[in-house]
Every structure is written in C-alpha cells, then in structure tokens.
Design goal:
With 393 residues, this protein is of the alpha/beta class. 43% of the residues lie in helices and 12% in strands. The strands form two sheets. A six-stranded mixed sheet has the order 7-6-5-8-9-10, with helices on one face. It has a four-stranded parallel sheet with strand order 2-1-3-4.
Length: 393
C-alpha cells in the first residue's frame, strides 16, 4: 500500500493524526545566539564544566540534565494489554509515557526500546546507559523476567529503578483501597482480599497491601489460589505463597470470594455474578483488566458498595499516571538512590489524601487531572526517602 493510501486509511481514527511524527521532542533550555553564548554552551566553556565533573561526579546532578531525566525502558514483550508486540511497536507507548512524565510531573523522559529479550543483555544495556539518567522506569516487560531485571538493576545502580507495571499499579490500588475502606466503615486490617492475577501487577499489589497491614490476602492465577505446597509454582509464586493466604485456601478464585471483603482483578480472567454476590456485605470490587474488566462495573454495583476499574468511562479509574510522575519527581528531587516500599506506601497515602472531603463511593481516587496529585505524591515520596536514609539531598 502506498504511503498516501496508508495515511488515508486511518484518517477516520483520531489517534493516528495525533501520533503522526511522534508525541515528544527535545528542546533546548538555553539559547545560543552569538559567539559568546556558543563559547559558554559548548567549547571552551563546556570543557570547564566537564573537568569539574571529572573531579566530583556528583556535580553532574547540578550541571547536566541528569537530575530530572528518566529512561523509559522496554523490550516490547508485554505492551499494554496487547501482549508481545516487539520494541518498534512499543515505541508509541513509550513516547506516551514520556509525554505523561513531562505533562503531569515536569520530569523529562526518554523512550528506550531494546531489540533483545535476554535479561542479561537488557541489564547490561541499561547499566551502560545509566550515567545519562537520574532514574530508570521499566515498562511493558513480561513476567517473570521483569522481577529479575528490576532486582538486579537496582542492585547494580545507585539511582531509582521502578517497574511501573508493578509498582505504579500497586500504589494507586492501595490509595483507592484506603479510601474505599473508609467509605465502607472499615480499616485495612479488617479486610480479607482476593487478588486475581499473579503476574507483575498482582505480585506488587499483594506486596504493598501486605506492607500496609491488610487482614489477609489470597492470590489466584489461572490454576486457582496460590498456596504453599502447590506443585506448579514458580520461584516468584512460591515467595508469594509464603507471604499470603493465612486462611490456607486451595480452591478457585471464585470459591475464595465467598465472604471476602475485596476483589482486586489484575488479570484477563472473568468472574461470575454469583461469585460477586457471595462476597461480604459492603464489598469492594476493583476490576482493573482493560479494556474488559474481570467483572463488568454495572453488574458489580448490584452487589458491591465501591467499584473501580482501569477505564476512564466509569467512576474510580485506577490509572498509573496518578503515581509515576509524582513518585519520580519526589525521588529525583532528593537524589534518592532507590524507591523503597516505604516510599511507595507514602505515595499511596498522599494520593488517597488528595480526595479529601470529596470522598464517596464514586470518588475514592482523584482525577488524573487534579493539579494536587503529582505535587502531593512527590512531597510524600521525598519525605519518606529522607526518613529511610536513601536521600542524598
């Protein structure tokens, strides 16, 4: 198909004109208009700055862009809900992520799409480019490789490494859960929770809600509830089994929902209305699969007091953009060496607090366009970094 015919085939879809030519660009922060300006911005002036940084590398945080720039790194193996599309097809999503970093958090970001799926090669590549960046945002890398890649990179680097598919989702879920518990007159410690999905998001969500002190969590995958002694568990799921399911459940996800207070769906599965109806009074349903939630929100509202989805056309949208711009803004502002569990919990608490006196069953999480979101999250993350001893400023 010729280029003109190809372009015309997408004229009716407004997404294509918006993406044409890409969604981001690099702009200078200073202007070079004469010889004197050139001599300062480039040689010989730049040589004096480079020489000073060679003596004291920490000066790069003040005299380069590094202190406010993040690499958004993917291999394209788990793009949105579309699956393994490869690095080139992932580029529009990474551009979008960079756009959101700047638009919502004032943080510069550079898309890095890697033509390898090998964890060792991904890790080596990121380590080699890391001197140019203040943080690394891992994105759309399939499980279970994403766990190893993040863990090893953070051990090798002294800048934050954050897999947003895990931790961004977890932060926003915890924030919404805080407020949903308040709406239904309960504390986190009162809640028995069933998480559907034991991939990247499911593991991180389970970890953060345990850190926050929920009553009990049972996590399920396509074969049922994860429990110690189940013979088909990966290393990640064995670790999950050791930290969850104090009730010792062994059946299906739907069986586990009987009497449960909360359902959190981060999988592509479906849940029957009968199972939702079997939950405890005042149930909370977070059905976050996109574009089709595990439980349709209209049906869920027949049985649950609070319902959230990942979609923008229903109340209570769980959207990662509520978290990652502020998390990195806060971490970069204090030159944090990592993002700790405590910093994530602090981010979730701050995000929940933004709702304020507007809290009700249809408003347990703020809008992504609320101007208080990123500053509130950033301030909480920076304060937590100082408390936990990972801040360097």
């Amino acid at each position: 198909m010729s280029s003109s015919l190809f372009d015309s085939a997408f004229e009716s879809d407004p997404a294509f004109p918006l993406h044409k030519g890409g969604k981001i660009e690099i702009r200078p922060t200073v202007r070079v208009r004469d010889d004197a300006g050139l001599a300062l911005a480039y040689t010989p002036g730049v040589g004096r700055v480079s020489s000073a940084i060679a003596v004291d590398p920490s000066l790069a945080d003040d005299y380069t862009w590094r202190s406010n720039v993040v690499a958004v790194v993917t291999d394209g193996t788990a793009v949105l809900g579309l699956g393994d599309l490869g690095p080139v097809a992932a580029l529009p999503v990474m551009e979008g992520k960079a756009l959101l970093f700047k638009e919502f958090g004032g943080v510069d970001a550079v898309p890095i799409c890697l033509s390898t799926r090998d964890p060792d090669e991904i890790i080596e590549t990121v380590v080699r480019i890391a001197p140019s960046f203040g943080g690394i945002n891992l994105e759309d890398i399939s499980a279970p490789r994403c766990f190893e890649i993040e863990r090893r990179l953070q051990a090798l680097l002294d800048i934050p490494v954050f897999h947003d598919d895990q931790h961004g989702t977890a932060i926003v879920v915890l924030a919404a859960l805080h407020n949903a518990a308040r709406v239904t007159g309960r504390e986190l410690g009162d809640l028995r929770i069933v998480v559907s999905g034991a991939g990247a998001a499911g593991v991180a969500v389970s970890q953060i809600i345990l850190e926050a002190g929920v009553g009990d969590v049972a996590v399920g995958d396509s074969k049922g509830i994860v429990y110690s002694g189940r013979g088909d568990l990966t290393d990640v799921k064995r670790g999950l089994a050791a930290r969850t399911n104090r009730a010792g459940l062994t059946g299906s996800i739907e069986e586990a929902l009987a009497g449960a207070d909360v359902f959190i769906g981060v999988s592509a599965g479906t849940v029957s209305e009968e199972a939702v109806a079997s939950m405890a009074p005042g149930a909370i349903v977070f059905a976050l699969a996109n574009p089709e939630p595990e439980i349709h929100p209209v049906m869920a509202r027949r049985h649950a007091a609070v319902v959230a989805t990942g979609r923008s056309d229903f109340p209570n949208q769980i959207n990662n953009v509520l978290a990652f711009p502020g998390v990195f803004k806060g971490a970069l502002s204090v030159r944090a060496s990592r993002i700790t569990e405590g910093m994530k919990v602090a981010a979730a608490t701050a995000l929940a607090d933004v709702v304020g006196d507007r809290l009700d069953a249809d408003h347990v999480i703020p809008s992504v366009f609320d101007p208080m979101v990123a500053p509130s999250v950033a301030a909480a993350v920076a304060a937590a970094a100082r408390r936990e001893g990972v801040a360097r400023r």
